[in-house]
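Reading a protein record of the kind used here takes little practice once its layout is understood. The fold follows as a row of integers, each naming the local backbone shape at the matching residue. With these conventions in mind, the following record can be read line by line:

_____
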Amino acid sequence: MCEDCHESGVIVPALILPTKPSASAPAVDSQTGANDTEAPFQVCFECTRTYATDADLIAAYNTEQGEGAPAVTTAEDITFCPECLHDFLYPPTPAVARTPGEARVCGNCDADISVLRAEARFCSAACRDAVEPAVAAQRPAPGVVTVRFVEPKRFPATAPERETKTDRNSAMSVGIDVVMFALPHLTEYQAETGLRAAVAHWANGKVTGAGVAAAARAWTRNGEDYDDMKPWAQGKENTAALKVLTKAIRAAHEYNAAISTSRK
């Protein structure tokens, strides 16, 4: 009974459950009055399954409960037969009916692809190739590696004959501004020291690993000493420094290119 009905004074008649015959007393035939000791023992309140003896019922019930449940020793403690108990503990899972053409079935064989990612349309590459032969024709054969050359992005080079010390200092100032904008915790001296140390390790048109480490040593966060850090912590600092160096050097190159263009 719910709480509202209980407070309203609703009275529910007591449920009268069918009584079970005692395990010790034999059953009595209502027509002849004779004892029927061979009659099966009916126990379940949900179905009509019967068991010949109490021992068979108790053994089947304890087996269905599993090892973790307390064992039942008398038939009077059992309300449901093991089959109904199994249906109660493990209700059947309704099957999900899917029809061809739904969004979550394969576009070729109608297999269920609900476990795949949302954008998947086929269950396998074979089904995809069967439906889209044009896409399959463009795919390289197994064992063939296709290499596509991508032209690297090149920044405008400055004219060496027109580049002066003033231009280099101005470009360095632009790079320092970029570093201070990206790392606001640095002073101008720290930003300039790290940038000049990185440029000092210039080779093949880029900053070497030693230059990145030199910049990271000057730009460490939280006032930590770079040399006292663990290798993985130094790697994090190097990665952060490399990102800032890339932007600062790019800005300096673009500044030099603009100066060279204006002088033509």
Strands lie at 27-28, 35-36, 41-42, 50-51, 202-203, 206-207. Residues 13-25, 30-39, 149-162 have pLDDT under 50 and may be disordered.
